[in-house]
Task: inverse folding
């Protein structure tokens, strides 16, 4: 069985790492290159860097940052934000990223998933989905959770899978930053209906939450931000805890 992955996520705004709650109230969390290097040394399996204000000007800054990250860490990392066409993917992979994450652009232009998979391979394409529960079910949101779409989580994840996505990164907006655990019921359902790995995001507050998302949520990887950035959970301790719980992780 493949080892479960622990993935710190770094949201980047104006060249700095930031973290919020329910997608708002951002506070600074440190230098993204230094944090990335520290996580790499502590045993993180992968990293995700998201340019959360990917304006045209931010794009150039972000590409430079990706180059610096690639020069300083020894683990795979994914980058997202402002990716609308193949040239964006090419630019970020050339700067040293291993994978790209697409979210709003995939919903607006699903064909982009097919194109990335065809040109660069499925393993490069992570489709990120921000969703929250509504009376109609789990709805997908655009633009950092600001705009509700007509797409439903499970249908859209399945379509992304069929189009060639290599992984689904599902963030429950209801759980984001509130540290009460991941959306394990929805994650387990995703795992049942998809043939690709599912990354859990949104809700990590203590070590048990990681265990629960791997067992109850059937997640292949667990992503978290503030608990790592602010030192509430240390990755080596988390991995030893999971190992003691019988969960296969790389030590």
Result:
């Amino acid at each position: 069985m493949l080892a479960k992955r622990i993935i710190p996520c770094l949201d980047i705004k104006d060249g700095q790492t930031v973290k919020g709650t329910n997608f708002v109230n951002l506070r600074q969390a440190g230098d993204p290159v230094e944090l990335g290097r520290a996580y790499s040394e502590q045993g993180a399996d992968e990293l995700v860097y998201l340019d959360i204000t990917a304006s045209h000007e931010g794009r150039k800054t972000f590409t430079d940052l990706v180059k610096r990250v690639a020069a300083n860490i020894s683990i795979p990392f994914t980058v997202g934000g402002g990716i609308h066409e193949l040239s964006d993917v090419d630019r970020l992979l050339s700067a040293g990223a291993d994978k790209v994450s697409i979210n709003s652009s995939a919903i607006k232009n699903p064909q982009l998933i097919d194109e990335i998979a065809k040109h660069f391979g499925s393993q490069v394409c992570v489709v990120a989905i921000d969703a929250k529960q509504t009376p109609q079910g789990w709805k997908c949101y655009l633009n950092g959770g600001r705009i509700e779409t007509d797409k439903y989580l499970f249908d859209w994840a399945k379509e992304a899978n069929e189009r060639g996505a290599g992984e689904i990164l599902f963030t429950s907006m209801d759980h984001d930053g509130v540290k009460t655990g991941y959306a394990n019921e929805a994650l387990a359902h995703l795992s049942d209906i998809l043939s690709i790995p599912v990354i859990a995001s949104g809700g990590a507050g203590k070590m048990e939450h990681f265990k629960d998302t791997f067992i109850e949520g059937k997640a292949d990887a667990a992503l978290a931000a503030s608990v790592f950035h602010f030192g509430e959970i240390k990755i080596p301790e988390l991995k030893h805890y999971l190992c003691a719980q019988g969960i296969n992780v790389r030590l």
Residues 56-72 form the longest helix (17 residues). The chain has a mean pLDDT of 92.
